[in-house]
Amino acid sequence: xxxxxxxxxxxxxxxxxxxxxxxxxxxxxxxxxxxxxxxxxxxxxxxxxxxxxxxxxxxxxxxxxxxxxxxxxxxxxxxxxxxxxxxxxxxxxxxxxxxxxxxxxxxxxxxxxxxxxxxxxxxxxxxxxxxxxxxxxxxxxxxxxxxxxxxxxxxxxxxxxxxxxxxxxxxxxxxxxxxxxxxxxxxxxxxxxxxxxxxxxxxxxxxxxxxxxxxxxxxxxxxxxxxxxxxxxxxxxxxxxxxxxxxxxxxxxxxxxxxxxxxxxxxxxxxxxxxxxxxxxxxxxxxxxxxxxxxxxxxxxxxxxxxxxxxxxxxxxxxxxxxxxxxxxxxxxxxxxxxxxxxxxxxxxxxxxxxxxxx
Length: 359
Prior knowledge:
This protein starts with a helix and ends in a 9-residue tail after the last helix. The chain has helices at 5-14, 20-38, 60-76, 85-111, 120-130, 138-160, 166-172, 178-194, 199-219, 229-234, 244-264, 268-273, 275-281, 284-303, 309-313, 318-335, 340-350. With 359 residues, the protein is an all-alpha fold. Helix content is 69%, strand content 0%. α2 crosses α11 (244-264).
């Protein structure tokens, strides 16, 4: 290590090369996924009942991940202005390679037998689906995202009824159906094109997202247009339902969360206080993967198999895993730098060409 390396890593994590609010939102998404995996959460969120508040992570954490994927894709393909054709071609090829690596890693994590719906295969497919949209403007992207978010929940029950084998289901990440979730990724891409570092955009994200959340969750309480299975699967905001009001309500909620994180990190004191969460959000793939590998190792050692969900949850692993991940990511970010799996992804795609955008 060269002299001055602690300062170098500090500047990398806190300097203009990174958008602190995006890292903070990713860190919250990581912890939310941990909670959704490892805690027995109440069925439904009720404002007046604090014992149900942890249910906020159910479904919304993974939607936050998907939306942030769109933001990241937007940043590496030009930010507010899409890259010129030749540089965009390089960026798209890098995204294809990243998608393939993510899919392979996701399959390997599925093979551990840990009883969670691994999001990485869906992530990989969403990366590929969004590529044709990367040259579009913010306005166009947000309108397309809104259109798909309204239309696809009405189509999804047809797809959900298809006889898909369980293994194929896992390999496609069908628990996070890309037919609907592409709307979240495009919304994130549209936000990146609008300029996530701009104060006006951040304020609009906060208030616009909150308004969408309020409208979506309020409409979900209205009676079904028809009392049948089809409308029950469309007319709902239930987590992981891909229903119309989950898309509107939870989609708006995560946009408001990202806007809030961006606004908070404008304040130096809050940016400093959130450093551990931001360090975790700077290496989300590593944090997510290590969580599942530790789960598999501990469950195999103590329970004799990796698939006993309730047996593992009875060990109360959430706080040790969450705190260990935050401390480990913070130490790694300050002492070593980029997360190990993030470094591997960058190295694996370097042969295609230099990074088209330096954030």
